[in-house]
Amino acid sequence: GHGSQNVIEGLMNSCNVFFYNTGRALGIDNIEEFAKLFGFGKTTGIDLPGETKGIVPGRFWKKVIKKDNWYEGDTVNLAIGQGYILVTPIQVLEMISIVANNGKAVKPYIVKRIDMSDISPAPRHDLNLSKNAIRAVRDGLYKVVNAENGTGKRARLEGVTIGGKTGTAENPGGKTHAWFSGFAPFDNAKISLVVFLEHGGKGGLEPSEIAKEIFAAARSKGYL
Question: Is the whole model's pTM more than 0.85, yes or no?
Answer without folding.
Answer: yes
